[in-house]
Amino acid sequence: MKPNQSFGSIVVCMGSSCYARGNIYTVEHIQSWLARHGLSASVELSGSLCGGRCKEGPVIIINGKVYTNVMPETIEDILVHEFEKAGDPELVQPDSTCSNTSAGDSWRVDP
Ligand code: FES
């Protein structure tokens, strides 16, 4: 990985519905996962206001793809799915110290 190389962006909906339904915790998981995998400086993490998809929430947009029904328990699977393609696969393997990897695929992505 080159210094200052960008691997993309994550936008976490912090509107009241998504926030209350889990994104308050999911954003902490994202920050922790990025730090553990050395990607904090390479992935832009930001919050957004409600995007009008509350019924499908919690919503997170990663590299332009809209993920719906994202829960703190499933965010690691999504991060691995998105960032294993960015290079440095050894950095983004599922973390065996995290208990969230067996939560299954309850989230969806809208292309
Ligand atoms: S609060 Fe997230 S889409 Fe409305």
From TrEMBL:
Which InterPro entries does the record cross-reference, listed alphabetically?
A: Thioredoxin-like_sf
Q: Which domain of life is it from?
A: Bacteria
| Chain intervals with Polar residues compositional bias | 94-104
Q: Where is this region: Disordered?
A: 90-111
Under what name is this protein listed?
(2Fe-2S) ferredoxin domain-containing protein
| Organism (species) | uncultured spirochete
